[in-house]
Amino acid sequence: MRLYSTMKTAFGALGRNVMRTLLTTLGIVIGVGAVISMMEIGNGTTIAIQRTMASIGANTLVIVPGAVSISGVNQGSGSKMTLTPQDADAITKECPAVRSVAPIVRARTQIVYGNHNWVPTYVYGTTPSFLDVREWTDLDKGDAFTEHDVRNSSKVCIIGQTIVSELFGGESPIGKEIRIRNVAFKVIGVLQKKGANVMGMDQDDILLAPWTTIKYRVVASSLANANQSSTNTGNSSEVNTLNQIYPNIQQNLYYIPTDSEQADAPKPIRFANVDQILTAAQSGNQIPFAIEQITMLLRERHHLRVTDVNDFNVRDMTEIAKAMSSTTELITKLLLCVAMISLVVGGVGIMNIMLVSVTERTREIGLRMAVGAEPGDILRQFLTEAVVLCLLGGTLGIVLGRGSSYIVSAVLHWPTAVSVWAIVAAVIVSASVGIIFGFYPAWKASRLDPIEALRYE
Amino acid sequence: MDLIELRDIHKTYYLGEVDLPVLKGVSLNIVRGELVALMGASGSGKSTLMNILGCLDHPTSGKYWLDGREITWLTATERARLRNRVIGFVFQSFNLLPRTTALENVLMPLTYTKENLNEYQKKQRAAELLQKVGLADRIDHQPSQLSGGEQQRVAIARSLVNQPRVLLADEPTGNLDSRTSEEILEMFQQFNSIDGITVILVTHDPGVAKHAQRIIHIKDGLIENSTGQHRLGGAV
User: Cβ of B111 and A375 within 8 Å?
Assistant: First the structure.
């Protein structure tokens, strides 16, 4: 039968009893509304969980240089000097899956303030984006150093809570100067407390400064002990950078030219290497792409041939990433179950009312059959009514769901996120519920015997 | 040629163990343009015969020709199409759709017609019929706002909207007072004589039956006798 007249008849039949139509759709309205608000609140929760996970470091990728062997003795991971700050810049520019990049120069050394001294677990020379990578941008006090400080190798630093308590006691450290190997650093910011990491390392025992300052003023690495991660510079006898003035034991792996020789020959160009590069992927599922992009880029930048092995390693936080994906998957599945149940309940309500409606309108069905409606016409009419009911309920449900999730986010400050997918699914599901639960009553109506139906009281 | 020809129609209802024969060999001819009354007491098989005539049911045995075509064993869908195009029904209890205007009630059978009329043409035709039955000013009224006689007129307009060959009226005046009944019956006579529509009145009331040209009496599932004149020939 013509779609137009079917729709007209369906709307006419539904419009004849507005109150009942509305109450019938209520099941679907609540079902769809629940689905949408659940999905949106669930999405918000998932995002919040992802954000928390990311602050643990789930999206973090660490790029470390490869290992080098000297006379058959492997020096361990990170002993090659292949990573440069330029690599970090290139990753920022050319890897779309990477959100943020921070080069790191490490040192292990004593720091001094007044009559207190302390050896922090981490003394990192880096850029301001380190805080972004570690999701640590909100400082407890003061400000972070800037790109400008990095360019100028300013003697400024920001410190973690452990250092504050170890060196300063109750005092505010802002504006104070601490000495690192006799170089005075001004404390300009204090990080928020982060606690221990999964390995039990105290993450608050950290000092961050521009990498240029750490590299050239504190570590002042020579080619001999270029890499802090592989050679021990935490040697307690080595208290300052003025090695020439106060020489200490230092193995010379190769011939060091004399002063006159150095004056004759041009100085070898020493490129600034960094100990590692810390990057954050855009999101958890971008990690594989980020690894691939970084690998491709660095192989190209390091002029590696196809046959060469990588002179660096990209590490991800597999364990945390797994925990994150399983958690979010669980939440999504849970919400889907809740959604299904409420929609089935709504569908049963529709079926119930459609059955009542068929019984109530038996005479009408008989009459329509007597004047020439084919069984198919009757089936189509009742099916259309059920689907229209469900779509109506679906539409109202979308409004209700969006509204309630808006209220939840506005009043309770729960995180929510609009889910277009949920809205599309709700429409499709409510139409399917209409067809599935409307079919039996419609089929029953189409099987009626016109004679019986006309005589029905 | 006869519009309707029934030959040796039997109808038996099987109620569990018991067989209940209702029609026991009915043969009947109705000519195009006749106005026939089908009379009989309740339980005589009158309603069953009407259901078979109206293609709502098929006989257990026998043959039925309508308009030269044998329709004894049509499927439900084919019978529905036939009812839509060839037969008009008028019921005792009017059977109008509640909360629906007179015009829409008249339009209703057209939604099941395969013929391609546009909305305007359909409305035109329905409005003309309502005018013909004298309800031109009641087009937008709902059944609850109409009297019994007016409701039956809407029902008659509805039965005629697909220009049927046969009008089957089942106790059309059963729920009406005598004056209105008279008007309704005159309307049937008018449609019969002016538009040439074959009308079959099913009734138990001799007062109604006397408006017909021919009365067919049914008793115990058999045709007892047939009085009155065949318009085109002698009594059957």
Answer: no
* Whole-prediction pTM: 0.66
* Domains: count for chain B: 1
Instruction: Report if residue B169 sits inside a domain.
Output: yes
Mutate to test the interface with B, among A371, A455, A457 (most CBs of B within 10 A): A371
Question: Facing residues of A102 across strands?
Answer: A278
**pLDDT single digits (tens) B157-196:** 999 999 999 999 999 998 899 999 999 999 999 999 998 8
pLDDT digits (tens, 9 = 90+) for A45-83: 777 877 777 777 778 889 988 887 777 788 777 677 788
List CB contacts (< 8 A) between A377 and chain B.
Answer: 80, 112
pLDDT at residue number A225: 45
Q: Which of A35-39, A222-226, A367-371 has the highest mean pLDDT?
A: A367-371
Burial annotation B8-44 (CB, 10 A radius, 16+ → b, else e): ebebeeeeeeeeeebbeebebbbbbbbbbbbbbeeeb
Instruction: For residue B108, give the chain A residue with the closest CA.
Output: A368
Residue of B nearest to A375 (CA): B77
Distance CA A203, CA A122 (A): 8
Q: What tokens does B39 get?
A: 């009379």
Q: Provide residues of A within 8 Å CB-CB of chain B.
A: 1-2, 5, 9, 12, 16, 363-364, 366-377, 450-451, 454
Q: Which of A103, A95, A32 is nearest to A298 (CA)?
A: A95
Q: Which of B95, B216, B113 is nearest to B161 (CA)?
A: B113
The rounded distance, in Å, linking the Cα atoms of B190 and A439 is 45
Q: Which domain holds residue B101?
A: 34-57+75-228
Determine the Cα–Cα distance for residues B151 and A290; give it in Å rounded to an integer: 78
| Residue B84 pLDDT > 60 | yes
Q: Mind listing the pLDDT tens digit for each residue in A337-391?
A: 877 788 788 888 888 888 888 898 899 999 999 998 999 999 998 999 888 888 8
Residue B191 sits in a domain of what CATH number?
A: 3.40.50.300
- Asked whether residue B198 is domain-assigned, the answer is yes
Closest C-alpha to B42, from B82, B95, B92 = B92
Q: Do A454 and B91 touch (CB under 8 A)?
A: yes
Chain position carrying tokens 């079926």: A351
What DSSP letter does each residue of A232-278 carry, written as one string? Answer: ----TT--SS-TTTS------SS----HHHHHHSPPPP-----SEEE
In A, which residues are within 8 Å of B83 by CB distance?
Answer: 369-372
pLDDT value of position A237 = 42
Above 60 in pLDDT, residue B113?
yes
B118 located within any domain: yes
**A400 to chain B, closest Cα gap in Å:** 31
Question: Between A12, A370, A375, which is nearest B77 by CB?
Answer: A375
The reply to whether residue B100 touches residue A12, judged by beta carbons under 8 angstroms, is yes
